[in-house]
Design goal:
Blueprint: H1 4-18, H2 26-31, H3 33-48, H4 57-68, H5 71-79, H6 88-107, E1 117-120, E2 124-127, E3 130-138, E4 146-155, E5 158-166, E6 169-170, H7 171-200
Antiparallel strand pairs: 1-3, 2-3, 3-4, 4-5, 5-6
Helix pairs in contact: 3-4, 5-6, 5-7, 6-7
Length: about 210
């Protein structure tokens, strides 16, 4: 149910987020989506490669990712029209599980990845409260650079990521294509079972 395309997208989309290079102040990132993206990449990088004691990488990066991503928006969009069929309790549970899956899959790919060079483009206004920030990711391994576009939404507390596009392929749209069938065949219970099954498996099996 979780296609190879999605896992390639997730790996490509989220790893660059932690491998940025420029950190800016939290105050600047409230009103500046580009500053938010740059400061978040720097902060997660610092967390990922610092000493961690007894804490897992998931535990260390979770607080920052929960501030960086609008997981409620991401989950709602990934479920598509079927989201409206869910009860409030089911919506809450699906959001919790989906957030956990994204964070766990992301975290399993952070440590040991080669640090790329990221070139940030100018933000593009999609709506008064939405921006798109293009980036170009390359490294020294000789692989071709690829395009990563972040879409951000403005909340009172600041900007949050709600979608990532890799070479034009949307993270959210790819997930929605998968969940549409699950929802049609079994509704929220089927989505919850699918997510619980994924989370019960070892983190490495998410790839």
């Amino acid at each position: 149910m979780f296609t190879d395309l999605f896992h390639r997208i997730l790996k490509s989309a989220l790893v660059p987020l932690v491998l940025g290079s420029v950190g800016l102040s939290n105050a600047a990132s409230v009103d500046d989506p580009a500053a938010m993206l740059r400061s978040s990449t720097d902060e997660v990088l610092s967390i990922a490669y610092s000493g961690h004691g007894n804490e897992t990488l998931v535990a260390r990066v979770r607080p920052l990712l929960e501030k960086t991503f609008a997981f409620d928006v991401v989950t709602r969009q990934a479920m598509g029209p079927g989201w409206r069929q869910f009860s409030a309790a089911d919506q809450k549970r699906v959001t919790e599980l989906f957030t956990e899956l994204v964070i766990r899959t992301y975290s399993s790919r952070v440590v040991g990845t080669q640090r790329p060079k990221i070139t940030y483009g100018a933000p593009v206004e999609l709506a008064p409260d939405r921006r798109e920030i293009p980036t170009r990711v390359s490294n020294s391994s000789g692989t071709e650079p690829f395009a990563v576009v972040y879409r951000l939404i403005k909340f009172p507390a600041g900007w949050r990521i709600y979608d990532v596009l890799i070479e034009g392929v949307s993270f959210v749209a790819n997930y929605r294509a998968q969940f549409d069938e699950i929802i049609q065949n079994g509704g929220a219970p089927a989505v919850i079972r699918t997510l619980e099954t994924k989370l019960a498996a070892p983190a490495d099996s998410h790839s």
